[in-house]
Design a protein that fits this description.
Distance between the termini: 69 Å
Largest sheet: 7 strands, mixed
Number of helices: 12
Shape: elongated
CATH topology of the largest domain: Rossmann fold
Helix content: 25-40%
CATH class of the largest domain: Alpha Beta
CATH superfamily of the largest domain: Vaccinia Virus protein VP39
Bound molecules: S-adenosylmethionine
């Protein structure tokens, strides 16, 4: 019979403490705060067996979120699977920046929604807004819809679309957000990301092709004074700002994530466009 405290000690060389705790939470169907108060609780045989295979998978490189089947993003718990990128904490910068806009947006477009992370976080923060969330992957959209139901969020609609291609050209938005694929196909870091869909991670032209497409096409869907927020790689800020300025956007800025790295660029459609 193993207590939680003993199990954590026995496995501390194998995985990070936070990952062990997340696996324990999943095995016991409890929150982390419960673990801290009950570290003398004893694991059942079934829980131990599940934890052993989960640790083995994690040691083989399978992300914890794919083992537990979910990931926390903003205030939400989101289900993820092999069709969806695991939402990253740095993407929460898009939500932070949206909350700092001078006026609350009422029409929001999320391009490449994946698990629905950005769309659902914005929909929950702006309950009077409507969010349209697009993705090329029907499997990702189906996961995103499940996440909206599980989180009781109803002010989002979902559209299968190559970026904005299927969006009604009559529609216009106060805010367009996107975390597109932006990794260079030759980036060696991809070797550590083999579990996530390549189509969610990689873009041609040194990771820039989807960013360029979005920048070139978003203006037509923005209201005058509408905002574009786009996530990109830590080393793509200069290029993204140049592209935004060349395309006629104003107030072009790049914002840093909690690690101090360039992560999201923002721009505004001028009134005259
Ligand atoms: C980096 S993931 C972001 C997922 C989610 N927004 C997040 O931040 O966690 C990029 C998403 O863009 C989608 N995608 C890739 N190419 C696309 C395209 N041409 N049109 C629409 N969506 C696309 C992928 O399926 C994936 O869900």
């Amino acid at each position: 019979m193993t207590s939680l405290a003993n199990w954590l000690t026995q496995h501390k060389q194998q995985l990070k403490r936070i990952d062990l705790e997340l696996l324990l939470c999943e095995a016991l169907k409890k929150e982390r705060s419960w673990l801290f108060a009950h570290d003398d609780a004893v694991l059942t045989d079934k829980q131990s067996a599940w934890l052993n295979q989960a640790v083995a998978q994690a040691k083989n490189g399978k992300p914890i979120a794919y083992i537990t089947g979910h990931k926390a993003f903003w205030t939400l718990k989101l289900a993820v699977n092999e069709h969806t990128l695991i939402p990253r904490p740095e993407t929460e910068l898009i939500i932070d920046l949206s909350l700092q806009l001078p006026e609350a947006p009422t029409q929001i477009l999320d391009l490449g929604t994946g698990s629905g992370a950005i769309a659902l976080a914005l929909a929950s923060e702006f309950p009077l807004a409507h969010v349209l969330a697009c993705d090329l992957s029907p499997n990702a959209l189906s996961m995103a819809k499940n996440n909206s139901e599980a989180n009781n969020i109803t002010n989002v609609s979902w559209l299968e679309s190559f970026w904005m291609e299927q969006v009604d050209p009559e529609m216009s938005f106060d805010l367009i957000v996107s975390n597109p694929p932006y990794i260079d196909p030759d980036d060696p870091h991809l070797l550590n990301l083999t579990y996530e869909p390549r189509s969610a991670l990689v873009a041609e032209n040194q990771g820039m092709s989807d960013i360029i497409h979005i920048i070139n096409n978003a203006m037509a869907y923005l209201k005058p004074n509408g905002h574009l927020l786009i996530e990109h790689g830590w080393n793509q800020g200069d290029e993204v700002r140049d592209l935004l300025s060349e395309s006629g956007y104003i107030d072009v800025q790049t914002h840093q994530d909690l690690a101090g790295k360039d992560r999201v660029s923002s721009a505004i459609k001028p009134h005259a466009q």
